[in-house]
Amino acid sequence: MILHAGAVRDGATRMPKRILGRFLALCVLCTVSTAAALGGDDTLIVVKAGRVITVSGEEHAPGTIVIEDGKITAVGGDIEYPPSARVIDAGTETVTPGFVLPKSRYELPTYSRSGVHGDQTASSDVYPSQLRYDHLLKAGYTTICYVPAGTGIPGVASVYRTGGPDETRLVRENAYLHVVPKWRAGGKSTLRKALKKAEEEIEKVEKARKEWDEKQKKKDDEQKESSEEEEVDEESDEEGDGDDSTPGAKRRVADEDGDEDEQDSSPADVEGEEEEEFEPPKIDPAHQPLVDLIQHKEGARMMVTLTRASDLRHFDDVMKAYEDLDYVLYLATARSTDYHHVVEALGERQASVTLRPWIHFLPQTTFRYNVMAKLVEAGCSVAVIPWSDDRVEFGRVRARLADLVRAGLSRESALKSLTLAPAEAIGLGDQIGSIEKEKAADLVFFDGDPIDPHAQVRRVMILGEIVWTQPSEEDQR
Question: Are 278 and 209 in contact (CB under 8 A)?
Fold first, then answer.
């Protein structure tokens, strides 16, 4: 209904002020209700991009991403949103999920720990407020997984956001157990002994539980036997003088209707004795993550470092008795590598693999071999890390991947290796790594195709807030 102002002044159609006021109030209420139905409020953020690469599904050009409370609520080509939403105009930009770095020691102190230290976490080394993440953000990284340093089993990796308030930085303290065996110097024995020790810890608890159960059964049997003896005594008393003063005897009590019921007046009921609870013996903290792995606790996994093809054989030999444990493999490589011998074996198990992105050479030859492309073709999920934690290398990762794409790697696999694959490797594939509903709004805005080395990151969003913007030319001077 549209009411012309002149109609109010016209005597024939004059509306009383009281009625007009109610009418206008109703119109306002309807407008607010409509906005609420659309989910509209001033905390709603809408990204209007020239192109949206979801990684997990189709690309949208142009594309729209709706964000609320730091999470993605909708993504598509053309999505309706309330006028109250805050719109980010990225019509000339390509938006991708934030990059995930699955293994790093960026700007952390240098040390080397050996032995089994599952009770140590990388978070004890990390003080986000004292670290500068500008180089990571400039390269598009919104998440970093820190690992404890050392060999053997140096500890547990921890995941952090590279921007935002300090209280939101720590994402997961226990991401995976970092396993770095010295395979040629007893590394197989170290891992096998650690797993065996974890099994002993489990058996220790199971034995204590069994002994406790037997003790409780014996106690219950004694109570049952005692109760039966008391019933016999009570029957004897009833046949005798009817004296009900004997402890444990049943006495008659009148209920509200005047009827008499029998109640047990045994000392145990009078005192309200509580049943004893089982207290398991403590697990050795250094082996607790391995115990969690063997018991298949949710989120329990390990990342195992290999340095050559033969290391996979050593690892498989140890894992014969633990074939169903959750693990990720880190293939530490030099430019010359023999991993071509195990690509098929890794593909058969659909292994999750992390490596550095470069074109390898077969040993003692000049024959170029694209290990990453071969692993993807075989069925592996492949994540990449920079050649080193040097600041310059973060920005070169996309250029390295572009070389691999030219050598046969698919563009989709290259993008996934920076986003969803590493997110899944650190156990956060359900929260980050792709642009999907209910996932964190961690986004990177490029001025071109992200696989084009010449494309630059214009801005970075974490949990729906812009945390980094490319400095202007004046600021860079």
Answer: yes
Same domain, 58 and 126: no
The per-residue pLDDT for range 254-265, each reduced to its tens digit, is 454 555 555 544
Residue 397 φ/ψ, nearest 5 degrees: -60, -45
**Which residue type sits at 188?**
K
Domain count along the chain: 2
Q: Please report, for the domain that includes residue 446, its CATH number.
A: 2.30.40.10
Digit-coded pLDDT (tens) for 31-52 = 333 343 344 455 899 999 999 9
- For 44-97, the three-class secondary structure string (H helix, E strand, C coil) is CEEEEEEEEECCCCCEECCEEEEEECCEEEEEECCCCCCCCCEEEEEEEEEEEE
Q: What are phi and psi of 349, to 5 degrees?
A: -95, 5
Q: How far apart are the C-alpha atoms of 297 and 226, rounded to whole Å?
A: 43
For residue 140, the model assigns a pLDDT of 98
- pLDDT for 108-137, tens place per residue? 999 989 999 999 999 999 998 889 999 999
Domain containing residue 62:
42-98+433-477
Do 388 and 447 belong together in one domain? no
